[in-house]
Amino acid sequence: MTQPVLSLWINGKPQASMSARTADIFNPASGEVIRRAPLASRQDVEKAVAAARAAFPGWRETTPLRRARILMRFRELMQAHREDLIHLTTEEHGKTHEDAAGSLQRGIEVIEFAMGVPHLLKGEQAEDVGRGVDCHSLLQPVGVCAGITPFNFPVMVPLWMFPVAIACGNTFILKPSEKVPSASLRMAELLREAGLPDGVFNVIPGDKEAVDALLTHPDVRAISFVGSTPVAKYIYESGARHGKRVQALGGAKNHAVVMPDADLDFAADALMGAAYGSAGERCMAISTVVAVGAAGDALVEKLRDKASRLKIGAGDQQGIDMGPVITAAHRERIRKLIDSGVAEGARLVLDGRGLKVSGQEKGFYLGPTLFDKVTTTMEIYQEEIFGPVLIVLRADNIDDAIGLVNGNPYGNGTAIFTRSGAHARRFARDIEVGMVGINVPIPVPMAFFSFGGWKASLFGDLHVHGMEGVYFYTRSKVVTSRWPVDEEQGPSNLSMPTLG
Ligand code: NAD
Question: Where in this chain does the record put each Aldehyde dehydrogenase domain (predicted)?
């Protein structure tokens, strides 16, 4: 049976794509195709940009308070329809119900942050910067913005972007991952129900063709991207070449350093969720442990014991800890990387390659896998595996551990497990990574802070949400004003004005 093709969402309503190309959307738990995504064409993108451009003047004139009220209604609708959004996330991505609920909650928190936009858009003001001269600054919207998002957070990552962008007075085009587009289309319906004017928010499922059309379109002013590092770099370079501001968040290889003074049971428990939650398909997943000194042997034993007890199955079933990975092709890639770890001499402590889930034989499952005695030259260290594979390296002391983490090209997230304040402080200060946890394994900043990595994990200057998100989606303007009274007007002066 041929599965139905989803619509695009342009100008406040579903619209059929002009492209004949589609992509299968799988339920990774069953391995079945459940629907198809349209792969938007350049003409579809033109249409979406035209709608967003036409909506911009009216939306910009809508006061920040009124924009915030629409977001308040949207937040209530997201809460009211949370089971729907959780279901779509679990169905298309494979996350467990609880994990999907957690990521939805973290996304809703960005809407809550953006609801404060009348306050967030306040600029600076100074009286008497010169005699009779005052100065104030404004934060104004940039225009049509676009967001390009990955498969691994169908709800949360789009919500990192568009609530802040539209709160600031911009209009928005979302290009969700073609593997998981349904939740984005559902959010578009909820925004309309919340009272968002037509054209302010548009959704165009698609692939490289749609992305390239957005990157080169003269009316798109800003691009937010989250995905893998090679694509992030391409988006940054191409967007910048076409005169756009770009924030492009890339891949990761997040290390947790476990010191010998840490509570090893606590660390091992925390690492279970950080490494195997969402089948390791999180940009903030801990995929690498650096065990320092005597911590190594005992920690590996605890990790093996706990990982071997995880329950794997369909995310909508009760009592499941970990679901499938996104596609059969991705599972194959991970299996090959595990093969390479074995071939290169790492110690395979737990092997997930042969896992079968009864009743779900066609699902894209892979069991939790654990390697010890990994070195930095091995492929399993150098590649972002993005699956349920945790690798352990050994270091002699904290200096070596920090050197090892800083030597990695990525810099998204990291954590240290220790009972020593001195070690924790040293680590937080010297580590070259954007998000740092101290006895916190996945240090994803709350919505009122900004989220972003360093080095090959971010191309661009500003992180998403929090105040950096507001600065990304606004242009600042400084107004210097004087209201001279007649007797103050002197002869004209051609030299560089100095106010003070
Ligand atoms: P991806 O880079 O393959 O795709 C991301 C988006 O780019 C999708 O919308 C896709 O359609 C589009 N795309 C893919 N190839 C393209 C190309 N050649 N040209 C133009 N557009 C293209 O990433 P993914 O597999 O969907 O997601 C997993 C990756 O995302 C991992 O590397 C993960 O670390 C990363 N990620 C990073 C963060 C972060 O905050 N840094 C968050 C989530 C995911």
Answer: 21-479
